[in-house]
Amino acid sequence: MGEFFSAVFEVLSTEAAFTAAARFAVLLAFAAAGEWVAERAGTLNISVEGMLLGGAFAAAMGFHITESVAVGLVCAMLAGGTVSMVQAQMSHRLTADPFVVGLTLNILVLGVVGFLESELKPSTRLASVVEVPFLVDLPLVGRALFGQPWPFYLIYVVVPFCGWLLLRTRWGLEVRAVGENPQSADVSGIHVNHRRRQSIYLAGLMAGLGGGYLLFGQVGRFEPGMVGGRGFIALVAVIFGGWRLRATIFGCLLFGSVLSFRLTLPALGYQLNNELLSSLPFLVTIVATSLFVRATRQPAALARPFIRGLK
Amino acid sequence: MNESVLSRRSQWAEAVTLYVLCGLGALVISGLLVTVVGASWSDVWNALVDGSVRKPGRWGGTIGVATPLALVALGTMVSNRAGLVNIGQEGQLLIGAAFAAYAGANMVGPGPVALLVVLTSGALGGALWAGIAGGLRYWRKVPEVLSTLLLVSLAANVVGYGLKNSWLLLERGAGLGNRNSVSEQLAPDTRIPHWSLWGNDFAMSAVAVVLLIFLVSWMLNHTLWGYRLSVVGQNQRVARRFGIGETAEGMKSMFISGGMSGLAGGVMLASGDFANYRLVAGFSVSIGWVGLLVALVAGQRALAIIPVAFVFASLRTGSGFLASTGIERRVTDVVQGLIVLALLIPPAIMFIRQRRRALSASRSRV
Amino acid sequence: MSGGGSASAGPPPAVEVSGLTKNYGAVAACDAVNLQLHRGEIHGILGENGAGKSTLMKMLIGLVVPDAGRISIDGASVRIMSPLEAAQLGIGMVHQHFSLIEALTVWENVALGDRGKLSRSATRASVAELGEQYGLRVDPDVPVGDLPVGLRQRVEILKCLRRQPEILIFDEPTSVLTPEESEDLFASLRQVVNQEDRAVALVSHKLTEILSVTDRVTIMRNGQVVNGYQTDEVGAAALAQDMVGREVRLRSTALGNLGGSPSEAGEPEAEGRSEEISAPTVLELRGLEVRGPEGVVELDDFMLSVRAGEIVGVAGVEGNGQKALVDALSGLQPVIRGEVLVDGEVVEMKRLGASHEAGVAIIPEDRHDSGLVMEMSLAENLMLADPEGFSHRGVIDRGRLDALTEELIERFGIMCTGPHAPLWTLSGGNQQRAVLAREMTSNPKVLVASQPTRGLDVGAIEYMAGQLRQAADDGVGVLLISSELDEIFELADRIVVIFRGQITGEMTRATATREKVGRLMGGDLL
Question: What architecture (CATH level 2) is domain C1-90+165-252?
């Protein structure tokens, strides 16, 4: 036990640890930023996991065909968008249960992607690292924040963009209204289910992009198990963050750091129990959420379908 | 108000049409997927049917897979009634199997008693695992949809750890250089007896599970317990007013739900159909996930679990014969997912149409 | 028959509706309605609940599409397919149940429904400006959820006025206001109409309101326009008769809810029950404290008692703790301090279902929320009162349950397809009867009725009132919570007023006047 804590302490003082933590955190952040918008609209999308995976696979295929990382990322976004479209149409037009749809989509995407990967076998590589001069030399965090493969830097656009979209635009105002009180929003002339679906599409695009980042910025080659439950952790980050963006990103940093311990602790020479390391992110997630969930801040209409004329 | 509720005949007709259309849609898309990859759809279909039921001795195996699926689905239905979203069956099943394996390796006693203890331990393990998520929901407001999910990954790690240590689950006496992560094999008299019928071999547990489905189905609809569960699931405030505790009923249903998944794990172990009476890495082979899907498709009717579980089990056992057709086994995962999605559509459409009819017929909502 | 007096040969009416029809299944919610709204006038649309006034307005505002008929704005024929189109045509509505979102601030709510770029400064400025102009001042940066009900309505009105509508529709605006606030509202309406030559439609079921505020009045009944008058040419009796379709004594129970003030028609007999000082106290609330989600105090050192056979009316504007009171008595909100005594014995409120067991029956304000389980059948809902009584060793005795349900269907006149009818297929009035049936069969000692006649038609209102009286006659202590002053005056033996979670006044029916009670409701301490 004592060894564990001293390991953590040492980890916190190495640059490699921060770099790894940032990488893991950013994956969560791509998914969480979009899902944050979607949850503020009152939707809960378990299929984020599938959006990430679909994005990663599409990125691999896109790169395989064109040898371009940029094209791969665009394909990733489209794939994420496609998964989100199924989720949105089935849950917010056909009123099928969002949990059921989300779960099925995850399983379906896993199956499709696994099947296609074994038949098509795409080959990929990591994107090239781009260093921001001066900033990359900052102690501890320099390389972590400014010396990563270039898809990493997209997060600096994605997160503020999502924040601006929800908090400063008319679209965002309507989305927030829809998440708090869809009946009132409807009476005010807002298309409730349109806004909900649109917010889910946004989540899909962002999560898809995240999948592309996962491929080009973190892992380098495609495996069907590469997301490994992190879509769910991103979901939890939104809840842990009390549906506020800054706190959600903090959650991503926290959970991402713990995820990265699996790499950094052994690399520093600590031989900790393998299973303990693998389960740590999930344990920390559960414990953190249990301690800090503030259900009172929840968008009032979260995960309840809207049909005009019914409560 | 008569206009708002369709006659039984037209309700039936609407349901059948929708289901047939959607089912066909799923099959068509699967067929397209198969042809895109260059295989022949009829070859695939034949291989699936051969592998699941047609060839001699196959449907016994299919029953062996359907049994734990049905158990998991039954338990899921119970927690669904209470309005809970339990999606951690895979983990509950695994922990149940682990408890069962531990009991099996450490039990001393006559065969049938030992078997009973093994199965009960399985149920206990699953119940506790689900209970964690239930407790987190009722005492810390953590949505169970997330906690049960996270607990699945945790379960895999816990069991993996167990399988590496002989004081827990690992087989004792294995040579040091040759350690597979497997548990003790269950003693021959601690195993579920098999029956043989027309050349097909299957565990007795299948019959027991069918009986259990009938029992639980009846209980859900005719006992006070089932009634209270329904009230809690549909309107917690009304339930509380009349002294029906959301927490009490909800926790009970989580224990039952997890318990059945855990029992399914125990059955998988003791029937020998999965890893020859041993607990191995990756033991659960998605039975938990697919069992959940079975429950989702069966909806509110517990009896529907029996045919649905059989169909999904057939997909699995049938896929064993796919190698000869040149197509990846994983295509059945895709087909499975498509079928579930397709089957989600008819109830959703019927629900919307029913509500729209009611709204237009009811004058008081003017 | 067209509404309003003789049509002048001047400019075309702001709104003209001819032959407007809307059917829901076999029922005509609006049947060939003709109506004219002129500028510079406040036009009252009077009718009981279910008469079709709401549907008519929904068609004007674009929430509902008519099946037949024509709408003209300033002489030009139009089709209104959405609230946005209605706004573009200059029609604005201030809704009965508000279209505000509590979590958003005032300016954000006001901006909702606009088009174009969102500008915080511009919206805030217009809120301030309009507030000055019409005497409807509100702080633009406060979340609407923090505002009291009267101020929320101001925000609704500002939201409507901001779009410079030519035609304003007010749907039952005074249901949540004190008499004083209602006066202020009508003064603002007058200003809007006179100084700016707009047309205002006031939809209401209250006679007194219509008589005092409007220039013209149209009466609707069963989806049809029945009559139209210049308001100063007609009296309460004629209006009441048009509304209900038969001669009505203004003192009849039903009209208690329609704004027929008993003091207009002469003094009512003082009810005899209040003289029974010897009747035992069946319900006593001592120093109750109840808090809401963020720790806000909703009931504060609350004291109340009800005797057997007595009807105690709790008057007050919505939002002063009534919901907390009912929820606390139902066991749905925890009681932090104080005691609840039924028949002199303390009820352990912490225990689930304790108040029900002690004999407290509740007819909640919102049956969907805490009264009935809509998805279940009538029989299953009725069983809630005593599930063990219908089962034998844990197994439900369906035969006995169905039999009793049939009996209750007879006794309470519930119209439905049978004991197995899902509750959502019943109409509102019948659902209310189902609630009543269930509550009364458990032989309660106390009956708490919260806004029991809201949204019901005259027949149902009469029935409910009769049932409440009957319960009191049978020795049950009745606690009637209502924001309709007339209902309180009609039924209660003793009247108390609730304001900000406390009882601020108490008087017998004989000594009560609407003016006194109205002032207490507004916070005046006498």
Answer: 3-Layer(aba) Sandwich (3.40)
Distance from CA of A264 to the nearest CA of C (A): 43
Stretches where chain B sits below pLDDT 70 are 1-7, 172-181, 324, 358-366
Quick one: closest CA in C to A169, which residue?
A: C118
Would A280 be classed as within a structural domain? no
Whether A252 is in a domain gets the answer no
**Hey, what are B289's tokens?**
């996930």
C-alpha span between C217 and C200 (Å, rounded): 12
Domain count, chain A: 1
Domain C279-521: which CATH class? alpha beta
CB contacts, 8 Å: C98 with chain A: 184
pTM for this model (two decimals): 0.83
Residue A54 lies in a domain: yes
Q: Is the pLDDT of residue A268 over 80?
A: no
pLDDT, one tens digit per residue, over B142-169 is: 888 888 988 998 998 889 888 887 777 7
Closest-CA residue to C477 (of C256, C273, C252, C268): C273
Q: How far from B226 is each of A299, B137, B254, C326, CA to CA, in Å?
A: 32, 21, 14, 29
Confidence band for C202, pLDDT divided at 50, 70 and 90: very high
- How distant is the alpha carbon of residue C15 from its chain centre? 27
Q: Do B234 and C25 touch (CB under 8 A)?
A: no
- State residue B135's pLDDT score: 94
Nearest to B110 by CA among B190, B194, B205: B190
C1-90+165-252 and C279-521 agree in CATH topology: yes
**Pairwise CA distance, residues A100 & A119, whole Å:** 29
* Of B361, B337, B357, B339, the residue nearest B349 (C-alpha): B357
Find the closest chain A residue to B348 by CA distance: A96
Nearest to B150 among A105, A107, A232 (CB): A232
pLDDT in tens, A69-122: 999 999 999 999 999 999 999 888 887 888 888 988 998 898 889 888 887 888
**Span C204-232, mean pLDDT?**
87
Cα B312 from Cα B333, distance rounded (Å): 10
Q: Choosing among B141, B238, B359, which should be mutated to test the C contact, i.e. which has the most C CBs within 10 A?
A: B238
Question: If you write DSSP's letter for every residue of C33-75 in order, what string do you get?
Answer: EEEEE-TTEEEEEE--TTSSHHHHHHHHHTSS--SEEEEEETT
Segment A192-235, tens digit of pLDDT: 999 999 999 999 999 999 999 999 998 888 999 899 889 998 99
Given a contact cutoff of 8 angstroms between Cβ atoms, the answer to whether C33 and C224 are in contact is yes
B245 contacts in C (CB within 8 Å)? Answer: 352
What's the rounded Cα separation, in Å, for the pair A309 and C115? Answer: 24
Q: Which residue in A has a C-alpha nearest to residue B362's C-alpha?
A: A309
Q: Are A268 and A29 in contact (CB under 8 A)?
A: no
Q: Which domain holds residue A67?
A: 23-226
Residues 6+ apart with CB under 8 A from B13: none
Rounded Cα–Cα distance for residues A114 and A54 (Å): 10
Task: Give residue B276's Cα distance to chain centre.
Answer: 21
Q: What's CA C247's distance to the chain center, in Å? A: 25
Q: Is residue A9 a part of any domain in this protein?
A: no
Please report, for chain B, the start and end positions of each structural domain, with discontinuous segments joined by +. Answer: 63-173+180-304
